[in-house]
Amino acid sequence: MLACLLLACECPGQTGTATQTLSAQIYAAAKLSVPATVTLTVGATKFSTFTGTLSVSYRARTTSTGGGSITVQVSSDFTPAGGPSAASGALTYTCSGANLGTGCSGTQTASTTLQTPVLTLPASACTGGGGSCSSQDPNSVTLNLSVPDNSTYSTGSYSANLKFVISAT
Amino acid sequence: MKRPLPLITLAVVMLVLAGTAHAQFNTTGTTTLSLNVAAEASLRIDTATTTLANVGTIFAPYTGTTNYTYRIRTSKGTGSGTITLKVTGDFNPAGGPSVGTPPTTGDALTYTCSVTSPGTACTGSQTASTGSDTGVSTFGSDAKSTSAGNTGSVGWNLTNDPQYSTGSYTATVTFTISAT
User: Fold this and answer.
1) What ipTM was reported for this prediction?
2) Burial code of A1-32, b = ≥16 C-beta within 10 A, e = fewer?
3) Average model confidence (pLDDT) across chain B
């Protein structure tokens, strides 16, 4: 700092200008967040259905010619054995409340082998800020999960893992 | 005397709070679904109205059959289940058969049981009561019906006492299923 001061004293009155061009390439991007655990509960009616809701939060930006999606796959089926089985089609869901993009339509059956749709993002979609982007940040979509309360299930606690994937182009 | 927190400490606290208040965003996310399957049971009476009729021999007892479908799941280990019945509305009008106050000692509404696995039917002839539940079927631990339900039936036998006045009589029987 002292050196700078000395240099400044040696060149009184001199000024300069420089132009710096800044450029940035903005790419499509997307991220999501899901709760660590969701508990499905059964209603008062005997042998009805276990239900629960799961909110997927996401931030996304798609290009003018691109799009995006959120999918889900059962990465680990219900354990222990003797209870519901996603591989047998026991886990179904509907999508609601998407505030950016379009939630899945109808009832979807979660799969242990395939990614099934949760949300579709259109071109030029972006999270937050309002205007041409959504006013919400983050965006969210709700999954309404169902598992039948089948009398053939053994009593006990069961758990399964769902893996969500978001992509944007 | 308390000293104010240094600025650097405040910054760290704020960062920690920010970290806990916001969910973690990434290109993938994993959720664990959990549910608890409990013991439960339900039944449906398939014969809404069971008509008791006497056929053949004079003063032969009135007989009839009530069919039902049950669904059950009992706990592993110490679980169990039962189906019982109780006459919750005695025959009326008065002057005919009665479960609670039969006109003649020995008059009775009795029944036998039949049930498909995993149920075990009551044994022999049971006497229906207005005062207490009587057994129809029992279930052991880890008993599971099919999802559509399993079936059972109760075969009725009502004394045909000459003391009964002629006419039509009705009674109400309530079936109860339970599981632990």
Assistant:
1) 0.85
2) eeeeeeeeeeeeeeeeeeeeeeeeeeebbbbb
3) 90
